[in-house]
């Protein structure tokens, strides 16, 4: 079996690209990076260890990038600078200027492991991985917003069309403004082929209707926990269908997923995820998702 490939959001996670936070995060100026009041670099590094252990316990192989002080504090959110397809990786172009140097880190990691590059998003296009959701293996949904523009969506479409994939763009709301992070994956977490956790009030309406037309069961994220967590209560990572990892402290959201048949693991992440605006899905770039 090849060591890469993923056109699915919840099939068993077998290989993932992750970056341990270190000096770049510890020295980050929270105002410059738009980190919230619970930001504490040393605590975030500590909290990340428990998250990495959960990934290891799931049996997933981790390809590690290391933070050796390049100043790229957000680079621990490996979900965003590249996208994986069954035909190779797509090197993206970031909408957040401070993250511009991150895609090159991913490209080097893929090259070192002989993982092919299917293509790149070029200027003026921008696409961030957090805006991309595989609805099925032939349909990629992309949120058009502050981080991802129409030029980027068109380029993604041109790269994937020869492989039988349709790329459909849907407008995201502005919500908390241009500086804040709102990706499509901030308002939906697929948990299995036919199950997703959503915050419907911020979902693109036509995407909501498409999910329903596809017969996908939607768990509504409790609004109080969504707002209290700055949306991070909803950012939930499946390591296999129905087996998920979330940030601790949101019991109603957890119970809603359990009631739908999910097994939920949690880790403490006030300094890591809530403060830095990215959860378990954002901390992982799936490289291989497939039933063994
Ligand atoms: N996929 C995601 O939602 N990633 C979260 C990225 C958070 C990071 N602080 C950012 O603003 O890009």
Automatic annotation (TrEMBL):
Pfam families linked to this entry: ADI
PANTHER family: ARGININE DEIMINASE (PTHR47271:SF2)
Alphabetical UniProt keywords: Hydrolase
Enzyme class: hydrolase
EC number: 3.5.3.6
A Gene Ontology biological process term: L-arginine deiminase pathway
SUPFAM superfamilies: Pentein
Reactions catalysed according to its record: L-arginine + H2O = L-citrulline + NH4(+)
Identification of the protein by name: arginine deiminase
GO molecular function: arginine deiminase activity
The protein's annotated pathway: Amino-acid degradation; L-arginine degradation via ADI pathway; carbamoyl phosphate from L-arginine: step 1/2
Keyword Hydrolase: yes
């Amino acid at each position: 079996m090849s060591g890469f490939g993923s056109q699915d959001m919840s099939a068993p996670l077998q290989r993932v690209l992750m970056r341990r936070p270190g000096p770049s995060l510890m020295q980050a100026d929270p105002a410059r990076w738009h980190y919230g009041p619970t930001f504490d670099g040393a605590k975030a590094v500590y909290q990340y260890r428990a998250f990495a252990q959960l990934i290891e316990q799931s049996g997933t192989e981790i390809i590690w990038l290391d933070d050796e002080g390049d100043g790229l504090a957000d680079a621990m959110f490996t979900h965003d600078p590249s996208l994986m397809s069954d035909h190779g990786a797509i090197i993206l172009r970031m909408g957040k200027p401070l993250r511009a140097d991150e895609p090159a880190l991913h490209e080097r990691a893929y090259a070192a492991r002989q993982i092919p590059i299917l293509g790149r998003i070029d200027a003026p296009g921008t696409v961030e991985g957090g805006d991309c959701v595989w609805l099925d293996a032939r349909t990629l949904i992309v949120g058009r917003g502050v981080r991802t523009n129409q030029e980027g969506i068109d380029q993604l479409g041109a790269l994937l069309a020869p492989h039988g994939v349709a790329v459909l763009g849907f407008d995201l709301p502005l919500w908390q403004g241009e500086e804040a992070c709102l990706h499509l994956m901030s308002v939906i977490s697929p948990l299995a082929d036919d199950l997703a956790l959503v915050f419907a009030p911020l979902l693109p309406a036509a995407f909501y209707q498409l999910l329903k037309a596809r017969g996908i069961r939607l768990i509504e994220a409790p609004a109080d926990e969504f707002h209290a967590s700055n949306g991070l209560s909803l950012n939930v990572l499946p390591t296999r269908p129905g087996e998920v990892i979330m940030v601790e402290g949101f019991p109603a959201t957890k119970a809603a997923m359990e009631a739908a048949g999910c097994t939920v693991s949690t880790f403490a992440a006030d300094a890591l995820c809530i403060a830095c605006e990215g959860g378990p899905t954002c901390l992982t770039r799936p490289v291989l998702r497939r039933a063994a």
